Amino acid sequence: MSENSTIDYELIKKAVKQALLEEGYALRDSEMELGERWTEGEMIIKPKNDSLAEKRIPLEAFFHKIIMIRDRLRVLEQKINAHSKLDNEEKIEMQQYITRIYGSLTTFNLLFKRKSGWFVGEKGGGGDR
User: Fold this and answer.
1) For residue 21, what pLDDT is reported?
2) Distance CA 20, CA 111 (A)
3) Which bin fits 46, alpha (ψ -120 to 50), beta or left (φ > 0)?
4) Is the pTM higher than 0.85?
5) Closest C-alpha among 67, 38, 41 to residue 56
6) pLDDT of 61
7) Low-confidence residues of the chain, pLDDT below 50?
8) Could you give the dihedral angle defined by the CA atoms of residues 8, 10, 16 and 19, in that order, rounded to the nearest 10 degrees?
9) Which residues, other chains included, contact 111 with Cβ-Cβ below 8 Å and sequence gap of 6+?
10) Helices (H) and strands (E) in the chain, counts
């Protein structure tokens, strides 16, 4: 590379991000935003026994874990669909399990700022998939 040529890293970053989006590997940032009413909130896990300590988890940290689960499920979907030793019937069966997992995760949709980031299970008609 010569001294006169410059690399626009932001342009490269945008191009890579767009390519990942088009291939289904990532969500738009706006779809991964925590709803404003939950910002700086906490999830409190309190045991029935008052002598035991409760656990407080920042909602931002919990939401990040939910997003990581989604990302890993998407990678798993891609690997299943590309797997050369699975026949179509096996791929469909595994995909149905993943769809049911998405359905279980719909409980956490209330945390998302936008509906476009929601998890959708078998009966859903939009959002995540």
Assistant:
1) 60
2) 24
3) beta
4) no
5) 41
6) 94
7) 1, 124-129
8) -110
9) 34, 35, 38, 59, 62, 63, 66
10) 3, 2
